[in-house]
């Protein structure tokens, strides 16, 4: 039986911290679906399609990574693709309470899907997509925070505003 994991998120945009978690998860699981939650209540900078393309570009050298998007409940999506695990990244202790609530609800909804936490590399422990967008908006240095293709996409978005 192969092990399939879902690494969910908004990835608006994907950062080096996300990429660290995805890369490490891909070493543990046979397949990792990096899956963008299509949440219509949020106002993302990048469309779902743009985020899918950026993630495909930055993960193209990781053969067991698939990129997808979904609506609805994560556990329903995970079951639909045959996943038996969810990968979540933790940056700091402050993330844990929220993550514990999500995991508890997911376990309540489907106790056959396990959640695995991966601590982010210390160099990315402060990093969030929101912070990257804010720094990029004011033309600050983000080259060490995101892959170059993402930096270019951010610069393009903010030069057109």
UniProtKB/TrEMBL annotation:
Q: EC number(s)? A: 2.7.7.3
Q: Which UniProt keywords are present, listed alphabetically?
A: ATP-binding, Coenzyme A biosynthesis, Cytoplasm, Magnesium, Nucleotide-binding, Nucleotidyltransferase, Transferase
Question: Per the record, what are the reactions this protein catalyses?
Answer: (R)-4'-phosphopantetheine + ATP + H(+) = 3'-dephospho-CoA + diphosphate
The GO terms describing molecular function are:
pantetheine-phosphate adenylyltransferase activity
Give the protein's biological function.
Answer: Reversibly transfers an adenylyl group from ATP to 4'-phosphopantetheine, yielding dephospho-CoA (dPCoA) and pyrophosphate.
Q: Where is this site: Transition state stabilizer?
A: 18
Q: Which domain of life is it from?
A: Bacteria
> Where is the protein localized?
Cytoplasm
Pathway it acts in? Cofactor biosynthesis; coenzyme A biosynthesis; CoA from (R)-pantothenate: step 4/5
Q: Which residues bind substrate?
A: 10, 42, 74, 88
Uppermost EC category: transferase
Its needed co-factors are: Mg(2+)
Q: Show where the Cytidyltransferase-like domain sits.
A: 6-134
Q: Which family does it belong to?
A: Belongs to the bacterial CoaD family.
Q: What is this protein called?
A: Phosphopantetheine adenylyltransferase
Note whether DNA-binding occurs among the keywords.
no
Matching entries from InterPro entries are given as: Cyt_trans-like, PPAT, Rossmann-like_a/b/a_fold
